[in-house]
Amino acid sequence: MATHRYDILIIGSGLAGLALALKMAPVGKVLIISKATAPDSNSNMAQGGIAAVMGEDDSFESHVQDTLNAGGGLCNERVVRNFIEQAPDRIQDLVNWGVQFDLRKDPRQPDTPSIDLTREGGHSFRRILHVEDQTGHQLHRALLKLVREHPNIELLEEHFAIDLIINKQVNTYDMSPPSCVGIYALNKETGEVDAYLGKSTILATGGAGKVYLYTTNWSGATGDGIAMAYRAGARVANLEFMQFHPTCLYHPEARNFLISEALRGEGGELINSHGERFMHKYHEMASLAPRDIVARSIDAEMKKSGAPCVYLDMTALDAEFLRKRFPLIHSKCLEFGIDITKVPIPVVPAAHYLCGGVLADENGQTDIPGLFVIGETACTGLHGANRLASNSLLECLCMAHNSSNKLKAIWSELRICELDPKPWHYPIESNDDEMVVISHMWEEIRRLMWNYVGIVRSNKRLERAEHRLKNILNEVRFYYSNFKIHSDIIELRNIATVADISVACALRRQESRGIHYSLDYPFSSDAKSLPPQDTILLRGLR
Q1: 448, 497 in Cβ contact below 8 A?
Q2: 42 Cβ contact list (under 8 Å, min separation 6)
Q3: What is the DSSP annotation of 313-367?
């Protein structure tokens, strides 16, 4: 086993990881480790845009209040204000990095176009900057180009982080408090495991949508960073708050294709199988209500009618506008015989964004020294019980900026571990026949989570999920301990861990709040004149 040393280790190549790398490269040698190829990430798939106060009629206070309202009383207001008030500066970072947002012409000033702003659910004003309907792709592409060109950044693709290395694993007689000194990672091409040490390790591994059967996430969104941090002893929080995006394309040949909330922001209407608008029955903002409400409303309409989906109707809008504003969605739907300018789009909710994660402050600092966590992997209190649309890309940039400032402020205090960690021990024999069983277990976890820990929950369903997951975890430990290390086994281990602690969090929340809706506790605790139930915390295993 080889040991490699860098100043900064960043695990994950999404927007948060790339932005942090660019900000830290001037002060030290940076390594980015990507479990697949660098473009593979949820950031790259983000369609809608990035929220920031840019309009003359808008204000920071309005954006703050919209975020707090969507978050169901669980947001950390200090963090919310920190991120929202720096948003225009982070937009300027993107412009400096080469991102070109869509512009619009003002009839009053035809020679000086301004940034085009759209609106999404839960927002009081148009404040979403975008690049057509491929915002995440364009942002990610611009930053990745700069990362690949920077002499002080090394990008290691097809390397899978397995576990964090804690100081006591390096030196048994170290009596100082537990701290993170690096990671073990699998080279997927060679099958070898090496150690990577750094002054600080930053988890930017994204979310955990693949814990569920139906999701808008990319195939590698398996909660790796959350599982690694939990195993190392970090606190995790609010994992019961998996946000279901209301509108994922419903088609037997379509896989996890998102239908952006921006379509509703431009005037799209949700209709049921009878062609009737229904959202006005559930919320005063109708189709532009916050995501948790829209997803539950769609779920209720489908259950009432027995229909497999509802529909998003865009046919009242100008056809040329739709083709120009949403070229990706228009062309993708055409592949399946759906012309969004002429017929409504069949849609269903799907697991989309994890509002919980590894507990961290606004700088990404966890309660394990040497370990930072940024982006969707983190739980800072920005999103509370439900994320406001298009605050996620903003979160990536703000956390990268804050973390870089924190790291630079303590740079002189940071040290790279001089001792080599113990060699990685694992079986060298594999049984290819058993890989089929691993695939079956993966499928069982995802189906179990969808059926028992979905949009609407009950204690009985959660308890069934808890019982089955305990058995699955025992089986996973057997495969992990007795078979040659493989990326499929690592991912199975991680989704089993995240599923288990998500159920544990859901059972502890004895109320309905934001994304978490329980048939046994249909009201929020503050609605019953009781103090609101606070953040649900779990302490890691070590």
Answers
A1: no
A2: 14, 136, 206, 207, 209, 217, 218, 221, 376
A3: E-TTS-HHHHHHH-HHHHHHHHHTT--TTTSPEEEEEEEEEES-EEE--TT-B-S
What's the CA angle centered on 176, arms 174 and 180, to 5 degrees?
85
> Does residue 228 carry a pLDDT above 80?
yes
Angle subtended at Cα 127 by Cα 123 and Cα 129, rounded to the nearest 5 degrees: 130
Domains and CATH numbers, the chain: 3-103+111-241+355-413 (3.50.50.60), 246-351 (3.90.700.10), 432-539 (1.20.58.100)
Residues marked as catalytic: 291
The Cα 92–Cα 217 span in angstroms is 28
- Tell me how far CA of residue 136 lies from CA of 24, 39, 48, 49, in angstroms: 22, 11, 8, 7
Task: Output the pLDDT for position 533.
Answer: 65
Check: CB of residue 143 under 8 Å from CB of residue 335.
no
Is 70 exceeded by the pLDDT of residue 532?
no
In this prediction, residue 189 has a pLDDT band, given cuts at 50, 70 and 90, of very high
- Find where tokens 């073990």 sit: 184
Chain centroid to CA 31: 22
Angle at the Cα of 131 from the Cα atoms of 129 and 132, rounded to 5 degrees: 115
Under 8 Å CB-to-CB from 56, ≥6 apart: which residues? Answer: none
8-state DSSP, 99: -
- Structure-token pair, residue 527: 């609605």
Q: Is-contact 507 453, C-beta < 8 A?
A: no
Packed helices 135-149 and 392-409: angle between N→C axes, nearest 10 degrees: 30
Q: What confidence score (pLDDT) does residue 527 get?
A: 61
pTM: 0.94
Tell me: pLDDT of 536 over 90.
Answer: no
Contact present, 483 and 434 (Cβ < 8 Å): yes
Tell me the per-residue pLDDT of 440-493, one tens digit each, with 9 for 90 and over: 999 999 999 999 999 999 999 999 999 999 999 999 998 888 888 899 999 999
pLDDT at 320 over 80: yes
- Residue matched to tokens 């369609």: 47
d(CA 174, CA 180) in angstroms, rounded, equals 13
